[in-house]
Amino acid sequence: MSRFHMHVGVSDLDKSIAFYAGLFGTPPSVTKPDYAKWMLDDPRINFAISVREGAHRGIEHVGLQVEDEAELAAVYGRLKDAGAPVLEEGATTCCYAKSEKSWIADPDGVVWEAFLTNGESTVYGDSPDFAPLASDNAAEGACCVPTMPQAAPVKVGCC
């Protein structure tokens, strides 16, 4: 059974850990100086946060984490059926984990990963070059982050 994944960039890790621990009703299952992760069963999600200098704040990327190679092959097949370029990263180290993964971007530049985690790592790891995903909306040189259009400020009246 796959698990939804979401990675959020934060500005203050300690405050964000306290917030999400309260929201989820449990402390993170993994905590590092620049990273925390919750592996929740209700809702079934791998929710991660990190603080990195110069990185995007907010949703960095989303994905599907699988439990075995057969499930990974099925998800990889669906990535190819989606009709967008697929970046097959293969074996990699990312977010203090060793994984097998591929990436795809939706038509608006939202980056998705499909991955099978097969071990832990003592280092955060690197991000791939997302240029092959060929999205006009992807942020250049950013980890997993689409460029978000700048909207005009909205005036909000009192309720």
Automatic annotation (TrEMBL):
GO process terms (BP): response to cadmium ion
InterPro entries the record matches: ArsI/CadI-like, Cadmium-induced_rsp, Glyas_Bleomycin-R_OHBP_Dase, Glyas_Fos-R_dOase_dom, VOC_core
GO molecular function: dioxygenase activity
Domain of life: Bacteria
Annotated PROSITE patterns: VOC
Domain VOC: 2-117
This protein's UniProt keywords: Dioxygenase, Oxidoreductase
PANTHER family: CADMIUM-INDUCED PROTEIN CADI (PTHR41294:SF1)
Protein name per UniProt: Glyoxalase/bleomycin resistance/dioxygenase family protein
Classification lineage: Bacteria, Pseudomonadati, Pseudomonadota, Alphaproteobacteria, Sphingomonadales
